[in-house]
Amino acid sequence: MALSQTYKGEVVDCYKxxxxxxxxxxxxxxxxxxxxxNSTWKVATGGQYEYVPVRYKDVLICPAAGKLVIGNKALSIxxx
Length: 80
Fold this sequence. Notes:
Blueprint: E1 2-7, E2 10-21, E3 32-35, E4 40-45, E5 58-62, E6 67-70, E7 73-79
């Protein structure tokens, strides 16, 4: 499912996916992960420590904005 939203005159495209690997994801800067679409990413900057167990690895990813949203937390990411 793809989502689009206008933000300050620009369209931000996001889509739902899930983290395929690694089996534990903390959201710390430098953490690498792979989505089920086989794209690989790295956390650029993180907030607080965030352990995401396997059953909660559904995410919203906004590649152009460089954001990964898990629940109510957004992390800055970059393509690996």
